Amino acid sequence: MRSPGLIVLLLLAVINTGAGLWFTQTTFGTPSYPLTAQIIGTIIAGFGIFLMIIAVFYGGELVWRERDVKIGEIIDSTPTANWVITIPKVLAIFTVLLLINLVGMCTGLVFQLIKGASEFGIASYFSWFIVPVTVDMLLIAILAVFFQALSPNKYVGWGLFLVWFIARIFMRNMGYSNALYDYSGSPGIPLSDMNGSGGFISGAWVFWGYWLAFSAILLVIAHLVWPRGTDTRWRSRLKRIRSGLRGGPLLLIGAAVTAMVGTGAYAYYNIKILNRYETSDQAEKWQADYEKKYLKYENLPRPTVKTVKVDAQIFPKERRFEVVGSYAMRNETALPISEVHVRQGGRDTKFSQLDLAGAKLIKDDKEFGYRIFRFDQPLAPGAEAELKFKSQIWHRGFRNGAPDTSVNLNGTFINNREFAPIIGMNRGGVLEDRTQRRRQGLPLNCGWRNWRICQQRAKIMCAPTGSCLTLPSRLMPIRHRLHRDVRSRIKRRRAAALPISCQAHRSTISCRSSPRATS
Asked: Which ranges of 358-497 would DSSP assign to H, the alpha helix?
């Protein structure tokens, strides 16, 4: 704790977290009340990278400290068992990380005190921050010690950890984020001062138990291959593993493997059987296939929902939501409607009934939740039809990534698009990212994102004031560098109380007064 490097890292963590707390505790420019859950989220983000650096750096320093001060051979010549050397070093790192987390907690409490909070939630700091983050960092420290035990020097050990760290980021970006093979991975834990952790921390503890059992195996291996004396060749270390796998080490590995199998099977059952699991690439492909298959129906005439009746029942302890409802729909178009396309917004919603009066179900695509009904007699203009439905949302167990919090133990917030059918197809939910669309072979378009919208074939740029500029299709490649000029010209003309009419020619924009301009 007296190391200058540790003190510097600790000060940087406090400064970084303090700045984050001071400048991010606002919502749309309005100061937020310093709630404990929000404070803890900022502290975890501010301290996280520094905790990892400390765990890795001091893992190497503690493992190789005796050799750096030239007393390694003296200690190695004693009859001391390897575990007497290994375990205290891990406990020392664990203690340092625990104390640093306490400093993070004090940083949050001081900020709440400055902001005039009446409740500090000290117990929440321990259950939401101190214990979970310390366990997570303990796993990182054990991995760092394991790499150091395998390495001929501490620099190689740091290099091995860096390779693991980069590989982990690369694998996650490639979509391989299953916590069963992502070391120290666990499901997300949403925090709320009203709802606590919402029971989601139980899933995280299953994965923490799984990885703690695996880290116990790493510690046993580190204990067996710990470099002692002058003979640090791998051949000699392998001989030690073969001779050391008996008695206590073998029993400990057996117990750890048993714990891994038990917790891993339970986690697999929750994330793969009870819940839908897919990688980011699979989710992207699903969206693209959905658009390719059904976006062609977006301009079909559809009836208008005039009346909605819903009888909803919430079962908080089971995290289950059941609905019985109906739509009264009217054809307000000038043409008869022969088909009605009905889709579901929530992919986890189950419809046990979906009946349209006077129509037959001619297509039921369960993969995309898309249904097509055809009337026996087309729905004439002004005529009405009733759609009855029964739906259920049931969140069981825990997921691999961020949990669904719509139906929770102590609070339910659910959108009607999740449990009620949607009439007709539209562009809601299609891929927006240009890179993703290009990768999936989709035409490049835009929706409500930043200052751009697509409206039929016209390419429109909108300023924050609501005024829009129409650009020909050939000018779309230059639209990004035109945004700033558009906004500044519109702002100046509004300040002068002049009407606005903007025209684009090649790469320039001109604004002038016009009797047909819109303000």
From this structure: 416-419, 434-439, 479-495
- Cβ atoms 179, 171 nearer than 8 A: no
Cβ atoms within 10 A of the Cβ of 30, count? 6
Note the pLDDT tens digit of each residue in 11-21: 888 888 888 88
DSSP 420: S
pLDDT band at 312 (very low <50, low <70, confident <90, very high): very high
Q: Which of 122-131, 289-298, 473-482 has the lowest mean pLDDT?
A: 473-482
Contact 425, 227 (CB under 8 A): no
C-alpha span between 75 and 400 (Å, rounded)? 45
> Residue type at 245?
L
Nearest Cα neighbor of 327 from 346, 340, 315, 316 is 340
For CA atoms 394, 397, 401, 404, give the dihedral sign.
positive
C-alpha to C-alpha distance for 221 and 230, rounded to whole angstroms: 20
Q: Which residues pair with 365 in a beta bridge?
A: 370
> What are 221-261's pLDDT values in tens digits?
888 887 766 656 667 667 777 777 777 888 999 999 999 99
Virtual torsion, Cα 188, 193, 196, 200, nearest 10 deg: -20
Q: What does the chain come to in residues?
A: 519
What is this structure's pTM?
0.75
Task: Calculate the CA 505 to chain-centre distance.
Answer: 43
Q: Is 105 in a helix, a strand, or coil? A: helix
Q: How many Å apart are CA 270 and CA 288, to the nearest integer?
A: 27
DSSP per-residue codes, 60-72: HHHHSHHHHTT-H
- Inter-axis angle of helices 4-24 and 82-114, nearest 10: 30
